[in-house]
Amino acid sequence: MSRPVIDFWFDFASTYSYPATARIGALANAAGVSVRFRPFLLGPIFKAQGWDNSPFNIYEAKGRYMWRDLERLCAGYGLAFRKPAAFPQAGLLAARVALVGLKDGWGESFISQVFRAQFAEGRLINDPAVIRDLLSGLPCNPRQVFDQAQSDEIKSLLRAETEEAQRLVVFGAPSFVTADGELFWGNDRLEAALTWACKTKGI
């Protein structure tokens, strides 16, 4: 019997996607679930909800809580944490590069490195030099990757992924969608999503 699958929808600007990315591999493996990493852009989704910024910036009290909560969570998970100087950061380039990497087999490692660079090291992930530096340790040619990331194929793929997220009524990140279309939103719903995925496969 094939393993159950969940789709992991994330945006690189999403704070709670950082711990989710760090946790999902080991938890999914232990549960016998395969994960499909699905980078998308929250900007168009927020715009459809009438927001022109992160809700954590729009609602000051919510933002203060989120940063303290993320600090507590990372400490509990043993993850390094450093609040970035700029938030949210544009993740367009990183998302396009991630799509190239997911096709070529190094995407998951790159995704983890981008989240660490932003939320553990305070680096600017919209800086091409930072992305190039992250790529230098991966089995790829950074120049070729940048060319691919700017191709019509990858640009169209990212648009299609964002449209698919909207079709699934994904409204935030991280989100997890099981094979039967069940949606779970938030880092704290990861375990529930894995349990549901296993139930729907009769495991």
Detailed description of the structure:
This protein is α+β, with helices and mostly antiparallel strands. It has one domain (5-200): Glutaredoxin. It is built from ten helices and four strands; from the N terminus they run βαβααααααααββα. The chain has a four-stranded mixed β-sheet, with helices on both faces. Strand 3 (175-178) and strand 4 (183-185) form a beta hairpin. Helix 5 crosses helix 8 and helix 5 packs across helix 9 (152-167). The mean pLDDT is 96.
Q: Any idea what the radius of gyration is?
A: 16 Å
Number of helices: 10
CATH topology, what is it called?
A: Glutaredoxin
Secondary-structure content class: alpha+beta
Outline of the structure:
This protein has 203 residues and is of the alpha+beta class. It has a single domain, classed as Glutaredoxin. Helices cover 56% and strands 9% of the residues.
Name the features.
203 residues; 56% helix; alpha+beta; Glutaredoxin; four-stranded mixed sheet; single chain
Reconstruct the topology from this structure.
Blueprint: E1 5-10, H1 17-31, E2 34-39, H2 42-48, H3 55-58, H4 60-77, H5 92-104, H6 107-119, H7 128-135, H8 142-149, H9 152-167, E3 175-178, E4 183-185, H10 190-200
